[in-house]
Amino acid sequence: MDAHIQKVYVPMTETSFYILLCLRHPSHGYGIVQRVKEMTDGEIVLSPGTMYGSLSKMEKDGLICFICEEEKRKIYQITDLGTEVLHLELRRIKRLYQNAQEAMQ
Amino acid sequence: MKETKTELRFFNIMEYEKEQDYLRERHRQGWKLKATYPPGIYRFVRCQPEDVIYQLDYNPDGIKHKDEYVQLFQDCGWEYLFEFAGYSYFRKPAEEAQGDESIFCDDESRLEMVRRVFYGRMLPVLLIFICLILPQFADAVGQDEIASPFFILILILLALFLLVFCQFAWQYRRFSQGIHK
Q1: Number of structural domains chain B divides into
Q2: Are strands B79-84 and B87-93 parallel, antiparallel or unpaired?
């Protein structure tokens, strides 16, 4: 993996994380917004400006790819590179969580 | 009673937050934005006074793929108005919004927008300034023509640019501090 990609995406923003997580199944931007709202009991509502910017940037960086367009909504899916980045980030979060657990005991 | 009114207001490229507040205030007074024309003409139509959040996004990629871009905002409950000077205008009634909702939900994406304005707008102006105007400026100084109208005009433009640049630096700092807090 490109050192630049790793530097930019590990750690990544909450928005980027949820985008990668949701795009393991094909979806469009608004689909991701709805899915994240459900997952977090309405606590996290991703905004369209942030969503549009993140999707364009991640597509350009090759983390997600465009599949097709349905009723003016672009459908994306995660790429192999995106999956790799997601796992790196997950590993970082797991370590963070484990260290916190140990420290708090 | 007049049904439309026109106002002249100047907001520079970095003053989008001030512009948003101005439009929200007018809507609260019962004037909703209808159109904007250069250099800074705002046309309003009389309406029911209401608290409506106005938001501006600078995104050339969005303008290029306008259908999908606008669709995403509409899905999220934002009404698209029009595009003016590279900015896309959106609005949403405050009662439908979640608190002080914005079209950006984190400081990273606010900073990204400031960067897009810088590369799309300020950098080209700076380059034009350096390549075209500065050499003539140097000539004028060399020939002792510093009181000429041209010279004064350049000084005014330079001062304006510096002002916008300071506003850019301030916004940049504000959002990057938000990220690294």
Answers
A1: 2
A2: antiparallel
